[in-house]
Design a protein that fits this description.
Radius of gyration: 15 Å
CATH superfamily: Jelly Rolls
Order of helices and strands: EEEEEEEEEEEEH
Shape: globular
Helix content: under 10%
Bound molecules: thymidine-5'-diphosphate
Largest sheet: 5 strands, antiparallel
Number of helices: 1
Number of strands: 12
Distance between the termini: 10 Å
CATH architecture: Sandwich
CATH class: Mainly Beta
Strand order of the largest sheet: 1-9-6-11-4
Number of domains: 1
Strand content: 35-45%
CATH topology: Jelly Rolls
Low-confidence stretches: none
Length: about 140
């Protein structure tokens, strides 16, 4: 079982040019799982909270592609907050971690790289069920 202390913000490589930056994530190179799905959260209304679930198996890399927001991670024992505001960094969320997302800045884009395709059966949406799973 993973704890919130196994979830870290990682520096991604950045190619800097006079015309701006490029950051690349490439399977088998700088991400510890094969990317099976990419999705992004955007047009999140000010003050809205998202998340409120865990995953049994899924691993994710979270990137603030634009703007900023905060992930609150919870392993059933400890909670840890991660503020993301830099597209050259990624938060690695391990399996079995509850997350809430809050404080989206206007126009922010939360890019998610995921280790599996969408499966509702991989979600734990009830916090008591999550706590029991973590026991
Ligand atoms: P959910 O993951 O619960 O949102 P968040 O954690 O950002 O608050 O997903 C919201 C809805 O979108 C839910 O009904 C399922 C749907 N969804 C898909 O159909 N495919 C996907 O890949 C994702 C991430 C969500």
């Amino acid at each position: 079982m993973y704890s919130v202390f196994d979830c870290k913000i990682l520096d991604l490589s950045k190619v800097h040019t006079d015309a701006g930056n490029i950051t690349v994530l490439e399977n088998s190179k700088n991400i510890p799982f094969d990317i099976k799905r990419i999705y992004y959260l955007y047009d999140v209304p000010m003050g809205a909270d998202r998340g409120g679930h865990g995953h049994y198996e899924l691993q994710q890399y979270i990137v603030a592609a634009s703007g900023s927001f905060t992930f609150v991670l919870d392993d059933g024992l400890s909670k840890k907050e991660f503020f993301l505001n830099d597209p050259s960094k990624a938060l690695h969320i391990q399996p079995g971690i509850w997350r809430e997302i809050k404080g989206f800045s206007s126009g922010s884009i939360c890019l998610v790289l995921a280790s599996n395709s969408y499966s509702e059966s991989d979600y734990i949406r009830d916090y008591e069920e999550f706590k029991n799973f973590k026991l």
